[in-house]
Specification:
Keywords: Membrane, Transmembrane, Transmembrane helix. There is one protein chain. It is built from 5 helices and 7 strands, in the order ααβααββββββα. It has 239 residues and is an alpha+beta fold. The protein has 3 domains: 66 residues; 82 residues, no CATH class; 73 residues. The strands form 2 sheets. The protein has a 4-stranded antiparallel β-sheet with strand order 1-2-3-4, covered by helices on one side. The protein has a 3-stranded antiparallel β-sheet with strand order 5-6-7. Strand 3 and strand 4 form a beta hairpin. The longest helix is centred in the middle third of the chain and has 40 residues. The two termini are 35 Å apart.
Length: 239
Amino acid sequence: MPNTNWKTTRITTILALVFLIGIFVPSFIGMDGFHGGFALATFSGFLMMVFTISAFVFGAVARQQDKLFAGQNLLVHWTYTADEWRQYYADESTEDRKTKTWLFYIVAFWAVVFGIGFPIYDPKDGIFVSYMMLGLIILIGFVAWLSIRITRHKLEKHGGEAWISTTGAYIAGQMHSWTIVGGSLIDVSCLTGEKQSQIRIDYMGGNTEYSVHIPVPAGREDEAKIITQTLAAQISRQA
């Protein structure tokens, strides 16, 4: 199975090098610092740092994914029937749509508040803010809609298998790692549903908390309990 994190690592590394060169472009072309030179160098330096950090993170995740597929620290490798996976991505798609729709409503609410408030505060120029807020609502709405469709397509395309190890998990084309810099396990539990049981893993990645749900194939509930106990013991050792 291809490790797409290596592709992302290469792209971000190339972009980091491009913007590293961009820092020196004003000097090469004789651009005056007070006429855009300093701004271009600063902008390039900022993006160089962003892409350098991104390359480091994606590279670390890619190495962990390679180790996972090689069986290092592997706890289980599950495969699913078509019906089991269909149930999983239906549930995940529904939850993803609810979350992103709610976030869109929050952004839209504040955009409407500012869009109405600024013309009241400044009748002459405030209308331009209203137009900007309207554009923001349309843009965020499109991004949310596109993100929901991409997530569903990804779940449908990368289906049928899941890997869980003591350092991370891979499902639906995405590697979840809790041992890279700033990462840690927070909680793990078995969720029993009417149609499908799942293992839920909460972990920190950098400064962000993530959750991943991994469906339990029929008849593998005992394995799920062992995995939960193993990861729970790992959390206890972290404390």
